[in-house]
């Protein structure tokens, strides 16, 4: 055993795999970038962003996306029993808890969509701009569809129900690669990180791992154009499968079972969607008057008083003196707060100017 270095926890094959992963990611990115010579621009689905949040419906052809849109919104999207009934992007609006949620009915995705089959690229480009993805699956063949769709979205840099890896990465002018980690790494090592960075022609950088990440996640950080978004898996057509199967599907994480044909469980889906969008309603109040509960300001969860000011009028934050807040975010009601105070759902605010 003498003379053998046993300090590295990673096997040689793992280095090799990590390098291959980096190469794969690099070549895939080159494939996805349209060739420079092609002058004609691809037709995207230009949809005005309206409402307070945007939800994209993604799924194979004929899983009930258009039926779902027609049921949930006042927009009628053509639905028929053949594939690719929907050819462009059809927007609709759901009104729920005072918020307008824009629902986008996109054409069905088929295998190889990431390479541009069946207008797949445009569909995925629209999906990247959404706040939440609803993945419509046919309950009778859900597992296969789910893994295929996840693969398609992964290959264009959409990560579903994951958070951004906690890695600090900063390319530098010189000084080589400085590598540090605050936790014990089991999947990456300094050597592997160097190899991956060299593959991307990065020789000077600062890398700090704050959690135990895989080589794939590290590559995501280097490339940097990844979108992390919440996704709801919706199994449609549950009226065609057994009760036990419905129960099994409903117990999966991030999953909801529905039937558009028999209008089952749609209200629960809306509740789940609201959870995933993480929106808060905030009501305003004038001095000496009752709060205005008809017109709410819809903001993202974790919004501060400053966000509320900007939403009312952009000059309001500069003239802001203090605000009075009633609701669950305060220790007592009303509480005098400053610009940094975080608002919660259904708080009432009264803003006092200088």
From TrEMBL:
InterPro entries assigned: Beta-grasp_dom_sf (IPR012675), DRG (IPR045001), G_OBG (IPR031167), GTP-bd (IPR006073), GTP-binding_2 (IPR031662), GTP1-OBG_CS (IPR006074), P-loop_NTPase (IPR027417), Small_GTP-bd (IPR005225)
Domain OBG-type G: 53-278
Top-rank taxon, per record: Eukaryota
Domain TGS: 278-353
Keyword Nucleotide-binding carried by entry: yes
Gene Ontology MF terms in the entry: GTP binding; GTPase activity
Keywords assigned: GTP-binding, Nucleotide-binding
One Pfam family linked to the record: TGS
Functional summary from the UniProt entry: Catalyzes the conversion of GTP to GDP through hydrolysis of the gamma-phosphate bond in GTP.
Record text on subunit structure and interactions: Interacts with RWDD1; this interaction confers protection to polyubiquitination and proteolytic degradation. Interacts with JMJD7; this interaction is direct.
The protein's name: Developmentally-regulated GTP-binding protein 2
Organism: Myotis myotis
């Amino acid at each position: 055993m003498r003379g053998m270095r046993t300090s590295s926890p990673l096997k040689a094959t793992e280095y090799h795999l990590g390098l291959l992963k980096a190469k794969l990611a690099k070549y895939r990115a080159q494939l996805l970038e349209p060739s420079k010579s092609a002058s004609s621009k691809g037709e995207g689905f230009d949809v005005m962003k309206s409402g307070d949040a945007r939800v994209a419906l993604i799924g194979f052809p004929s899983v009930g996306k258009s039926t779902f849109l027609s049921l949930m919104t006042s927009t009628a999207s053509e639905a028929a029993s053949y594939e690719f009934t929907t050819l462009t992007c059809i927007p609709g609006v759901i009104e729920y808890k005072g918020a307008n949620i824009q629902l986008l009915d996109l054409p069905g995705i088929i295998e190889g969509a990431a390479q541009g089959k069946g207008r797949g690229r445009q569909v995925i480009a629209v999906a990247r701009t959404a706040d939440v993805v609803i993945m419509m699956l046919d309950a009778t063949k859900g597992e296969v569809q789910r893994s295929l769709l996840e693969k398609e979205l992964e290959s264009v840099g959409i990560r579903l129900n994951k958070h951004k890896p906690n890695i600090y990465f900063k390319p530098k002018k010189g000084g080589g690669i400085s590598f540090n980690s605050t936790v014990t790494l089991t999947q990456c090592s300094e050597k592997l990180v160097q190899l991956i960075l060299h593959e991307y022609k990065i020789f000077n950088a600062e890398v700090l791992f704050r959690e135990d990440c895989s080589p794939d996640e590290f590559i995501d950080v280097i490339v940097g154009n990844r979108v992390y978004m919440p996704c709801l898996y919706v199994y449609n057509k549950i009226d065609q499968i057994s009760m036990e199967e419905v129960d099994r599907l409903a117990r999966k994480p991030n999953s909801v079972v529905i039937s558009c044909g028999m209008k089952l469980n749609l209200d629960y889906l809306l509740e789940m969607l609201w959870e995933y969008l993480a929106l808060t309603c905030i009501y305003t109040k004038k001095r000496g008057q009752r709060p205005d509960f008809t017109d709410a300001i819809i903001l993202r969860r974790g919004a501060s008083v400053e966000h509320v000011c900007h939403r009312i009028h952009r000059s309001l934050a500069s003239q802001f003196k203090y605000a009075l807040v009633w609701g669950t975010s305060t220790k007592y009601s009303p509480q005098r707060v400053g610009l940094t105070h975080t608002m919660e759902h259904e708080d009432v605010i009264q803003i006092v100017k200088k």
